[in-house]
Amino acid sequence: MTKIQISQKKYQTSVKGKFREYKYVAKRRGLKFNLTIDDFYKYWQKPCWYCGYQIRTIGLDRIINSKGYIKGNIRLACY
To answer: Which of 12, 27, 54, 62 would you call most buried, defined as having the most Cβ atoms within 10 angstroms of its Cβ?
Structure first.
């Protein structure tokens, strides 16, 4: 793995990288996204709502899928 690939992998698993990924995927899928980077810091490496497993980065589950990634409609999930 080159230094650039290592750097890209670190970014992709960082708070900012995951925030950007979730925001991009939501936009591509036509879903609302009103979370902030500060929200991501609050949710970062917290336990799964369903099983209690400590999440390595972040995993967001939409309670009502059609509402998108909006405050009050997400739970932390490890799957």
So the answer is: 62
